[in-house]
Structure formats: C-alpha cells, structure tokens
Specification:
It is built from three helices and no strands. By secondary structure, it is an all-alpha fold. It holds the Pfam family DUF4577.
Length: 129
C-alpha cells in the first residue's frame, strides 16, 4: 500500500517540475525575443490586476497625488497664516493710531475745559464789577 502513495507523490513532483521548466522557458523566451523596451510592457502586463489596471503605476500616481495635495495644503496654510499675521499687524497699527488720536483729543478737551473755566471766572468777575 505504501508504493501507490509514493508513486502519486513522485508523479506530482514530476508534474510540478514540468510546470517549472515550462515557466522558465517562457521567461527565457521573453528575454531573448523581446528587446529591453518591450520587456517593460510585458512586466506591466504581468503586474496588472484583474480589472486591467496597473497596480504599481496607480500606487506611484496615488503617492504623487498625495504629495502634490500635501504640498498645496502646506502652501495654502502658509499663505493663510501669513495673511492673518498681516491683519494682526495692521490692526495693531490702526489701534496705535486711534489711541494717539484719543490722547491728543483728550489734551485738547482738557485745554478747552481750562479755557472755559477761565472765561467763566472772568465773566463772573466782570459782572461783579
């Protein structure tokens, strides 16, 4: 009984050996028949999935698309941050100008109050005379 099982195993390995030899011959035929430029086409055909898309090419294009999107996002965020900083500086300058105007107006108002008191004092003295 052990002999038939050995024969089956030997025939299986013999079949696998034949498939390996045929595959090796096909690869050798591709290398000798196809020039270097067309070998890449054959490699790409082997790398395609069942839908007919090249998976290595789509990975590269996905990585490239991700990189471009990442760089654009960084540039846009840098531009927005720069704009916000510009607005903060402009607002600070405007607030400084307004505070300077208020200080000068306050001095003017205090001067007018002093003049008003002096006029009232002068009028009250002139009425008394």
């Amino acid at each position: 009984m052990e002999r038939p099982s050995l024969e089956i195993n030997l025939s299986d390995t013999h079949q696998e050996g034949k498939l390996y030899v045929v595959d090796s011959l096909n690869n050798l035929n591709k290398l000798t028949v196809c020039p270097d430029g067309s070998q890449h086409v054959l490699d790409e055909e082997e790398n395609t999935s069942g839908t007919g898309e090249n998976t290595s090419g789509s990975n590269i294009s996905n990585e490239g698309l991700f990189f471009i999107t990442f760089v654009l996002t960084l540039i846009i965020s840098l531009a927005l941050v720069s704009f916000v900083i510009f607005l903060i500086i402009q607002t600070r300058n405007e607030l400084d100008q307004v505070s300077r105007r208020l200080m000068s107006e306050k001095k003017n108002i205090e001067g007018i109050k002093k003049m008003h008191k002096m006029i009232l004092k002068h009028l009250s003295q002139s009425r008394n005379k």
